[in-house]
Specification:
Elements (H helix, E strand, L loop, with lengths): L2 E4 L8 E2 L5 E2 L5 E4 L5 E9 L3 E9 L8 E6 L10 E2 L5 E3 L5 E6 H4 L6 E8 L7 E11 L2 H9 L3 E9 L5 E2 L6 E2 L10 E4 L13 E3 L8 E3 L3 H11 L2 E6 L4 E3 L9 H4 L5 E2 L2 E5 L18 E3 L2 H18 L6 E4 L6 H4 L10 H18 L5 E6 L2 H5 L2 H6 L5 H4 L6 H16 L6 E6 L13 H10 L20 H12 L4 E7 L7 H17 L3 E4 L8 H10 L11 E6 L4 E7 L5 E8 L5 E9 L4 E10 L6 E2 L3 E2 L3 E5 L3 E9 L1
Helix pairs in contact: 5-7, 7-11, 11-13, 12-14, 14-15
């Protein structure tokens, strides 16, 4: 059934929780949406399926691009995306009214219970009254929804899986996260982020750095982290501070007002914790690090590693699969400038890597050590000291033969191993975030959504010029492989953090699925999503498409198979060691066109059984079809969809 919300007045059961001047006294509601005003319409929670939200508006001409609609509930559920209203949502009526319809597939892709509808201005607009009326949750029509999906424009694609080629093994460690694992099926979990730079393993304290007034705070306990991963039987990656200082307690701060005087801002709950800047924004020069921190030498980190290995001996397990040398050192002079105000140079990065890596290796000879965990593009090529001047001047790089930072770093570490016999790095680890405007956010207008999906090409495509300030071909995984081959052969490669934004939208889900598919196809060794896909979000189901598509551990298999793709459709293929079990993941990145996909299995045995699991903008949770016998793979992939094919071969 439909549910009327407002028609000349609020309907029973609904409450006006709006903000900004508005008048609901009689007839159409009149709202002043200046200063980002909005209208919240609240009701007891609904779990009913609706078709969408419909309303009429007048007073803004035919303009809607300032408007945003979203659902919510009082439980803090983050699975409701904000929908930007565009021309595709409206149709003109008489008397300058415009009727808007937003489908529930966009507003509530996870079909979660909700208790409010919000209509708000997302941009600054004039203080004119805009009229709204006939606000309705429309009736859900399952047949019409399915028909609408099936009747979208269709394009034919021919895709091929090459069963004749040997393919290559897929690393089990590319399906990592840096947060809760839950039922995602993640294979490894990372203890990382800005706060791990200042983690004191003996006091379980850390410092929030620039993220929150340079305050010392209580931390999670690393032992609980390691025990949790052990119980879940997944590998753990642990960040080891190499900055030289860690939080001494849970109460101090880096720029106390009692020491440095008045500042631009302070924590409203800890008023002595300043933000480290004068009222005019001038950064305060920090005093000794001992205000907030204690020294963390390589020897103290070695004691930590020893404590871990001794504990492992008691359980006859290995709890740390990988040790990571700190986090984003080129940003220390901003994120942690209370203890490290000077930008890191080529020499300091190398020196700290060698000293701390040597200590870890001595404490745990079997350690897998990763670094330098740099944040992104410019940090691959220049030191923080270079960037403090400018990339064009690059004084530090010029002083080191004008060799980009990472190749220089790798070559020097190889020289160190050859000279000393001690290997202090096993994995080249970098972070990657898309830099194009709005991509790494929850923005999901049509332009940003398309750009988000295209941005994944920076991971692998040598012909793709990044559509951001980078304005260059990134081809990240092939580039890192070349640097390793040329400067330190044999090292593994890790993308220690990545995220393409839009987690609550199918564009974010498709970007994540594309990345996971490319990681396996390109032979990456490790990858960790930052932080973890929100429960039941489209991105959550995208991750599960590779790791737990049937809720019983069904996953993309152990060997990558060569595929031929076409246009907006990506196809990733895998098989088990026997070659009798094949799992495919097909992605349709078009938001408006269905893909009629003829998927050929070149050189494979005939299909014995097949089952399909689908996620689309109509229903983002993976929906299973029944198991079918034999047959070809001639499938319709809905717009914005992820489809898993689970095949057994004769």
């Amino acid at each position: 059934m439909a549910e009327a919300i407002y028609d000349g007045g609020l309907k029973p059961g609904w409450q006006d929780w709006g903000w900004g001047p508005h008048d609901l006294s009689a007839g159409p509601a009149r709202l002043n949406l200046a200063n980002y005003g909005g209208w919240i319409l609240r009701h007891d929670p609904f779990s009913t399926n609706f078709g969408g939200v419909s309303f009429r508006m007048r007073g803004a001409g035919k303009q809607t691009n300032f408007l945003e609609v979203r659902l919510a509930n009082g439980n803090g559920d983050q699975s409701f995306p904000a929908v930007d209203i565009g021309p595709e949502h409206g149709r003109p009526l008489n008397d300058n009214w415009l009727e808007i319809f937003v489908p529930m597939s966009s507003l509530n892709p996870s079909s979660s219970p909700f208790d409010r509808v919000t209509i708000r201005a997302k941009t600054s607009i004039p203080a004119d009254l805009i009229s709204f009326d006939k606000v309705v949750l429309t009736q859900f029509d399952a047949a019409a929804a399915k028909a609408a999906e099936l009747n979208t424009p269709m394009k034919r694609f021919t895709l091929t899986v090459n069963c004749k080629a040997a393919g290559h093994a897929i690393s089990p460690y590319i399906y990592g996260v840096a947060g809760d694992v839950g039922d995602l099926g993640a294979t490894t979990v990372r203890w990382g982020g800005n706060r791990t730079t200042r983690y004191n393993w003996q006091a379980n304290s850390t410092n929030a750095g620039k993220d929150w007034y340079f305050e010392n705070v209580k931390s999670d306990d690393y032992r609980q982290f390691l025990e949790g991963s052990r119980k879940q039987q997944i590998a753990a990656a642990l960040t080891i501070p190499i900055i030289g200082w860690v939080a001494k307690d849970t109460i101090a701060s880096g720029f106390p007002i009692s020491v440095y005087g008045p500042q631009r801002g302070h924590d409203p709950y800890r008023t002595d914790a300043g933000d480290g800047a004068r009222a005019d924004g001038t950064p305060i020069k920090p005093n000794a690090p001992t205000l907030s921190s204690v020294e963390a030498t390589p020897e103290s980190m070695a004691r930590w590693v020893t404590a871990i290995t001794q504990r492992d001996a008691g359980t006859q397990t290995r709890s740390v699969q990988q040790y990571i040398l700190d986090n984003e050192p080129s940003l220390w002079n901003t994120n942690h400038r209370d203890i490290h105000p000077e930008p890191v140079s080529y020499d300091e990065l190398l020196e700290r890597t060698i000293r701390y890596g040597t200590a870890i290796r001595k404490a745990d000879p079997r350690a897998v050590i990763a670094g330098p965990a740099e944040w992104g593009w410019s940090a691959y090529f220049y030191s923080a000291r270079d960037l403090a001047s400018s990339a064009s001047l690059r004084p530090d790089r010029r002083a080191h033969g004008d060799v980009p930072l990472l190749p220089w770093y790798l070559a020097k570490l190889r020289e160190h191993e050859q000279a000393t016999g001690t290997k202090v790095l096993d994995v080249l680890d970098v972070h990657f975030y898309p830099q194009a405007q709005g991509v790494y956010s929850q923005n999901s207008d049509a332009t940003t959504a398309a750009l988000r999906i295209r941005s994944t090409r920076a991971l692998w495509d040598p012909t793709y010029k990044d559509e951001s300030w980078i304005n260059d071909t990134v081809e990240l995984i092939p580039r890192l492989k070349r640097w390793v081959a040329q400067n330190y052969p044999g090292l593994a490669i890790s993308i220690g953090e990545y995220n393409f934004g839009g987690e609550q939208h199918m564009s974010g889900a498709l970007a994540l699925a594309e990345a996971l598919g490319r990681f396996g196809q390109q032979g990456l060794d490790y990858a960790y999503y930052w932080h973890t896909p929100p429960k039941d979000s489209p991105s959550y189901w995208a991750f599960r498409a590779f790791r737990n598509f049937n809720g019983q551990g069904g996953h993309f298999l152990e060997r990558s198979m060569d595929t031929r793709m076409d246009g907006d459709v990506s196809l990733f293929a895998s098989r088990d060691p026997s070659g009798k079990h094949v799992v495919l993941v097909a992605l349709n990145a078009s938001p408006t066109t269905s893909a009629k996909a003829n998927i050929g299995l070149d050189g494979c045995s005939p299909i014995a059984t097949q089952q399909k699991f689908s996620s689309s903008q109509r229903k983002t949770a993976l929906v299973a079809d029944g198991v079918k016998a034999g047959g070809a793979l001639n499938e319709t992939l809905p717009p914005y969809s992820i489809v898993v094919f689970d095949l057994t071969l004769k």
